[in-house]
């Protein structure tokens, strides 16, 4: 049986990409890149147990990341409304539309619209892909019964320690970052590598490799960066230091300027030369 990443992905009907708890920028960039590259080819979703913070906003598609594990079932909750005030719940089909009716007990008021909260639960995906992380505690969803029967894969620059996960398939490879490893699999599997995917991968590699200063950076890293730029990827723009913020004399060819009020007084006075001998 072929257990290559490409073959496992090919046999999948639906894919759920899971990010670790409190993920690094590189891990989010890698997960989003894989998510975007699978869109249109597979039913795919991406989830993270931690909320996305401001630093991730520059990544394309970050709004697609949810804290909910799956979207198999739609759940409706009424916040701050006593369940005992409800007498019964009924439903009807009107003009091919589903209608749910909440009927309160006599003398009690109905829930307000703003009290109704919609959420999803349950996992319908048959293939789970874990991005990054060091051990199974970084993926709380692994203890959920919803994942029973699903194929579980892990991709990262280091292997994942998860002794309690039966049948875990590891596709960890050495690399400067998760984004570099993911980029390799996207290329090998002939997945979509458009401008958005390439840009996310470039940002992930730059951040994950500490702007290419990591010891894991290799010639393959730079070759991959070149290919991503050819695919239309845009590198993160670094802000150059402003001229007025540079220390005096730091610009080649520029003469240091004396600070105002610091010029020695005798420099401004007329120069008179005196001699003691007349020849």
What is the succession of H and E elements? HEHEEEEEEEEEHHH
Largest sheet: 6 strands, parallel
Radius of gyration: 30 Å
Q: Would you tell me the structural class of the helices and strands?
A: alpha/beta
Proportion of β residues?
Answer: 15-25%
State the CATH topology of the largest domain. Answer: inorganic pyrophosphatase (n-terminal core)
According to CATH, the homologous superfamily of the largest domain is inorganic pyrophosphatase (n-terminal core)
| DSSP strand count | 10
Largest sheet, order of strands side by side?
3-2-1-8-9-10
Which architecture of the largest domain would the CATH scheme give at its second level? Alpha-Beta Complex
Counting DSSP H or I runs of 4 or more residues, the number of helices is: 5
Number of domains: 2
Cα(first) to Cα(last) distance is: 109 Å
Share of helix among residues?
A: 10-25%
Mean pLDDT: 84
Low-pLDDT residue spans: none
Textual characterization of the structure:
This protein is an alpha/beta fold. Helix 3 (178-188) packs antiparallel against helix 4 and helix 4 (195-208) runs antiparallel to helix 5. 21% of the residues lie in helices and 19% in strands. It has two domains: 13-71 and 122-230, inorganic pyrophosphatase (n-terminal core), CATH 3.90.1640.10; 73-120, no CATH class. Strand 5 and strand 6 (97-104) form a beta hairpin. The longest helix has 14 residues, at 25-38. The strands form three sheets. The chain has a six-stranded parallel β-sheet. The protein has a two-stranded antiparallel sheet with strand order 4-7. Strands 5-6 form a two-stranded antiparallel sheet. The mean pLDDT is 84.
């Amino acid at each position: 049986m072929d257990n290559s990443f490409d073959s496992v992905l090919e046999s999948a009907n639906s894919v759920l990409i899971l990010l670790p708890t409190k993920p690094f920028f590189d891990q989010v960039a890698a997960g989003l890149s894989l998510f975007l590259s699978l869109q249109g080819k597979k039913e795919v979703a991406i989830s993270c147990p931690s909320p996305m913070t401001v630093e991730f906003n520059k990544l394309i598609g970050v709004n697609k990341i949810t804290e909910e594990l799956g979207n198999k079932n739609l759940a409706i909750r009424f916040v701050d409304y006593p369940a005992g005030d409800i007498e019964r719940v009924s439903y009807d089909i009107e003009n091919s539309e589903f209608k749910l009716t909440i009927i309160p007990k006599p003398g009690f008021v109905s829930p307000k619209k703003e009290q109704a909260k919609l959420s999803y639960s349950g996992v319908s995906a048959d293939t789970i892909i874990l991005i990054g992380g060091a051990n199974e505690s970084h993926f709380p969803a692994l203890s959920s019964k919803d994942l029973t029967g699903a194929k579980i894969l892990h991709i990262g620059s280091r292997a994942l320690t998860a002794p309690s996960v039966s049948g875990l398939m590891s596709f960890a490879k050495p690399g400067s970052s998760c984004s570099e490893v993911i980029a390799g699999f996207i290329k090998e599997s002939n997945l979509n590598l458009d401008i958005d995917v390439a840009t996310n991968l470039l940002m992930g590699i730059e951040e994950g490799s500490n702007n290419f200063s990591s010891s894991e950076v290799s010639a393959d890293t730079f070759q991959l960066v070149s290919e991503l730029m050819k695919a239309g990827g845009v590198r993160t723009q670094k802000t150059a230091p402003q001229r007025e913020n540079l220390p005096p004399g730091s610009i080649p060819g520029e003469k240091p300027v004396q600070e105002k009020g610091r010029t020695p007084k005798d420099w401004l006075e007329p120069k008179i030369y005196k001699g003691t001998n007349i020849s």
